[in-house]
Amino acid sequence: MQIRIINTSNHPLPTYSTAFSAGVDLCANLPDAGSVTLMPLERRLIPTGLYIELPQGFEAQIRPRSGLAVQHGITVLNSPGTIDADYRGEIRIILINLSNEPFTIADGERICQMVIARHEQAEWLEVDVLSDTDRGEGGFGHTGK
User: Fold this and answer.
1) What is the pLDDT of residues 75-132, one digit of tens each?
2) 71 — phi, psi (to 5°)?
3) Residue 21 DSSP one-character state
4) What is the CATH number that goes with domain 4-11+22-118?
5) How many Å separate Cα 99 from the centre of its chain?
6) Which of 84, 95, 98, 112 suits 70 as a labelling partner, its CA being 20 to 30 A distant?
């Protein structure tokens, strides 16, 4: 699949790290500031300098990087974030620092993953009754530990 992309950053285009990678890492684009520091519990919108044109029926999902999450408590606040196929603005990432320590994000640092995924749009069929299942209305925690 080919996706049209504009890169206004000084960083390379996103690439897959391995042949089996589902996502690509996106980098912070902070050329003027050089870096930003997220204080504990602070959230900030981080630019990437990337603009994409997805085909209809696809979305880009923005997800945390596991290393940043486990080592530093840095995550994507609205995870997964969705970029719709008709969005043409800059990809910007809502990061939050869930640790007790300040964390500095440098220009060019890998801050999240982006996964391209196919999706469907539902046609809603309003009914009075839904079919029965063994689970029924069992929800949060209904299967035990």
Assistant:
1) 999 999 999 999 999 999 999 999 999 999 999 999 999 999 999 999 999 999 999 9
2) -85, -30
3) -
4) 2.70.40.10
5) 19
6) 84
